[in-house]
Amino acid sequence: MSQGKKMRIAITMGDPAGVGSEIIVKALSHVEIYKRCIPVVIGDYAALADAIRFCSLPIKLRDVEDVSEAKGEFGHIDFINMKRLRPGEWEYKQNSAKCGEACFQYVIYGIKQAMEGKVQAVVTAPISKESINMAGHHYSGHTEIFADYTGTKDFAMLLASRTLRVIHVSTHCSLREACDRVKKERVLKVIRLAQEGMRQLGYPHPKIGVAGLNPHCSENGLFGTEEEREILPAVEEARKEGIDVTGPESPDTVFVKCQAGQYDIVVAMYHDQGHIPLKLSGFKYDLQKDRYESVSGINCTIGLPIVRTSVDHGTAFGKAGEGRANEESMMDAIFAGVEMAENRKDIGIK
User: What's the pTM value of the predicted model, to 2 decimals?
Assistant: First the structure.
């Protein structure tokens, strides 16, 4: 792909007190990124420079006034300096209103660039929900911020590792509330979003498995009624629309079947039902070394008018500022952002 045809990708730095700046500079020290896209970071010079320092990386920062000025040259990180922080104004591993305001503004700036067509995707490093709420921005996560600032009503979180893909009926709410959100209309919308998301990820005719909510899919009503009253009617209606969907399937087996290839993606009923198997498939932790040997997988928001992908982990305050964070998920997220942007053009999504 020639330089002129490369996708321009915005990467928001995330919470400065977390590992965002570190995983970004580490990811952008791999030449493979520059072969696929023109990355431009939205963040602060102070945090990016500090990450380069404590990671001992032979790369340079290049301040640009507009994302269109990014050159995408390996060895240089093009970035928009939001000037929210000066050296010494934040502390790694600590929530704060200052960091919360900074990371919130990085995200809003990135969304604006994408909505104006200046970048083809936004890739986000992790934010602290506590910090952004301390700053007065009352959102439960990136997904809700992107939905609000793009005016999107129907959306869902899709996670993908190299062997498993899941999308969620509900995410950031209590488990009690999550059960109440399992309604036919919402389940049907998420099945449709699964179809749309998988097409963007390169699956023209995805096979979708739908998890039940209750153990053993309620055993014909012994343990609940959601499967019969809400989930099955949604599956049947989706089939009438021509979607290749099966379910509800028992939650303790549907993910295994997806990994085996029976399905391409699973519709999970709530946050941990989907996140736990996804992270088991993509994260590998070495107890003796006290570090993750592999942190693969991505998070993307489906239903938006723009492409948004992210790492599939949090701020990792416990290791922030130490140079031992793993950049694998950030690289996956960048590549996924490029792929989704390219596929959206191919399948006619503006």
Answer: 0.91
